Description:
The chain is mainly α. The protein has helices at 3-12, 15-23, 31-55, 59-105, 107-119, 125-136, 139-149, 160-176, 189-214, 219-248. Helix 3 (31-55) runs antiparallel to helix 9 and helix 4 packs antiparallel against helix 8 (160-176).
Amino acid sequence: MKPSRRRQLQREHRPENIARRLRQPRRPERMSDLVLGAIDGCITTFAIVSGAFGAGFPPLVVLVMGVANLLADGVSMAVSNYEAVSAQRRFAEHARRTEEQHIRVVPEGEREEIRQIFANKGFSGENLEHIVDTVTADRTLWIDTMLSEEYGLSLVDPNPLASAWWTFVAFVVVGLIPLLPFFYAGDNFAQKFTISTALAGLVFFSIGLLKGWVFQTSLVRAGFGTFLLGSGAAGIAFAVGTILQQAFGVA
């Protein structure tokens, strides 16, 4: 570890800085929404470009199909993510109500669950009983502990609308990039396709780099990993377009 990074970590873990960080409200992370929208948006539009090039369609068709699919699929992705996050929130609310009922009806049984949860973590004897007494003395802490330990739920309340919005924005903004060459006049599809391919590859690699930087993993490995996944999806679309062109004479 670099000395500068070590000093930064030491500063972050001073008691006053830890207390300040823990006092801050926990917010849902948006990286998954952004990555989901960005990768799917780029794959969607570049798949159209690749399939149309393989089938021999004119550039104008690519632009019309690309923009139409970009908006329609962007809305579809946003709605899907909204529903997925909403379902996650509803499940968490149901689990909370369930635990509240269980604590009210069978408190000793719920205390035993807390006891076994922390016993499995290696606590025993007086230390274990002290933890059980402390947790179960606070109803909110008791329920939160059960949600986290028994259900594996995050205690950060998800925001379906925000997740949908950022997925849509990432989908449209990034998905537009492979279509940029087709906004310019000219019928040289091969040249436009080459530029679009380069832009799509750069987007896939950049998304991987961003993930690697955020999660502090190998930048090169993350970049090439996402690049290969995106390129594979585009390659399949190109192959399908070529096969259909040869099979049905589409031109």
